[in-house]
Amino acid sequence: MGYDSDNIFAKILRGEIPSEKLYEDDETYVFMDIMPRADGHCLVIPKSPARNMLDASDAQLAACLRTVRRMGHAVMAAFDAGGVTVQQFNEAPGGQEVFHLHYHVLPRHDGVKLRPPGKMEDMDVLRANADKIRAALAELD
Fold first, then answer.
1. How far is it, in rounded angstroms, from Cα 103 to Cα 86?
2. Paired strand residues for 4
3. Which of 90, 103, 107, 129 can bridge 44 by disulfide, Cβ–Cβ 3.0-4.6 Å?
């Protein structure tokens, strides 16, 4: 199975589909998940093609994890969270639905369960949450 350049994240990277951008550097791009399982749920992807971690290069994986760590600090600060959950799925049997390498970064609070998957969030709520994360990122610099 190869990389499909028409996957939704590739289209986001090309600007064909809008996204609520939080951060980008030369190698990675971060945006809000439109079906968040927690307030502040965001996605970290490499800018270069990779189906998942099984075919990604060491450089892609290292770049993504550097950005995942940065975003973990940012979402914890933005949402006064006590922890962060990072999820990454590989191939359909492993739970992967979009076949472009991506990491879910979710701020977590004691006693608060993740919401069920599949519910679209209101764009105004996503933008407000994105603003909180961008402000927290600015404090990290």
1. 7
2. none
3. 103
* Structural domains in the chain, sorted by start: 8-140 (3.30.428.10)
Query: What are 42-93's pLDDT values in tens digits?
Result: 999 999 999 999 999 999 999 999 999 999 999 999 999 999 999 999 999 9
Neighbours of 59 (CB within 10 A): 11
Q: CA quadruple 97, 101, 107, 110: dihedral positive or negative? A: positive
Indicate which residue of 41, 100, 102, 104 is catalytic.
102
Alpha helices in the chain, H assignment, sequence order: 8-13, 58-78, 123-140
Tokens for 103? Answer: 């990491």
Q: What is the pTM of this model?
A: 0.97
**Partners of 50 in beta bridges:** none
